[in-house]
Amino acid sequence: MVEINDPALARRHRQAAILSRMMLAVIGSLHSAYRRKNVGAVFPELMISMVIRINDDEGKPPLHINTLAKLVKMPRSNVRRALEYLIVVGLVKKQNDGYVGDLDFLKARLNPPYWLDALAAIETAADELRKL
């Protein structure tokens, strides 16, 4: 165990550990339902799908590939390949000249175990951070 004598540093260290535990649980949960590749290889697809879900939630128009590439800070060619796969698995669909999330994908997975695990990890982290 690391001994930390500075209270501010100890608090920050604890916050980092709580967030790290949460992120590992969330990413692991999402990846468990997305067993195509190792998590590092899947991460760009996860990031792109998350940006699209946020955009949809905010009621914005479909995202163009160039905008997605800028938002996730990836080459356009990588984003294009990821989008092609996300369309094949049904997570994303092309709408006009942009991309949106496919609600049928979510509808078919309203409360899967991996999602409940991710939500539990977030709730645990929020509780632990509030107690600090």
Specify the helix fraction band. 55-70%
Measured by DSSP, the beta-strand proportion falls in 5-15%
Mean pLDDT: 88
Principal-axes shape call: elongated
**Number of helices, where a helix is a run of at least 4 consecutive DSSP H or I residues:** 6
Please give the alpha-carbon distance between the first and last residues. 19 Å
> Which strand order spans the largest sheet, edge to edge or round the barrel?
1-2
CATH-wise, what's the superfamily of the largest domain? Winged helix-like DNA-binding domain superfamily/Winged helix DNA-binding domain
How many β-strand runs?
A: 2
User: Measured on Cα atoms, how large is the radius of gyration?
Assistant: 18 Å
CATH class of the largest domain: Mainly Alpha
Give structural notes.
There is one protein chain. This protein is mostly helical and 132 residues long. The chain folds into two domains: 7-33 and 111-132; 38-108, Winged helix-like DNA-binding domain superfamily/Winged helix DNA-binding domain (Arc Repressor Mutant, subunit A), CATH 1.10.10. It is built from six helices and two strands, in the order ααααββαα. It has helices at 7-32, 39-57, 65-72, 76-88, 103-107, 113-131; strands spanning 92-95, 98-101. It has a two-stranded antiparallel sheet. Helix 1 (7-32) packs antiparallel against helix 6, helix 2 crosses helix 4 (76-88) and helix 3 packs across helix 4. The model has no long low-confidence stretch (mean pLDDT 88).
